[in-house]
Amino acid sequence: MTHPAPRRPARFAAIVAATVAIGLTAGCAGGGNKKKDVAYVARDVDTLYTAAKDRLDKGDARQAAALFDEVERQHPYSPWARRAQLMSAFSYYASRDYAKSVQSAQRFLSIHPGNKDAPYAYYLVALCYYEQISDVTRDQKITLQALTAMNELVRRYPNTDYAADARLKIDLINDHLAGKEMEIGRMYQRSGKWLAGSLRFRTVVEKYQTTSHAPESLYRLVESYLSLGLPQEAQKAAAVLGKNYPGSKWYERSYDLMNKYAPGTTAS
Question: Does 54 reside within a domain?
Answer without folding.
Answer: yes
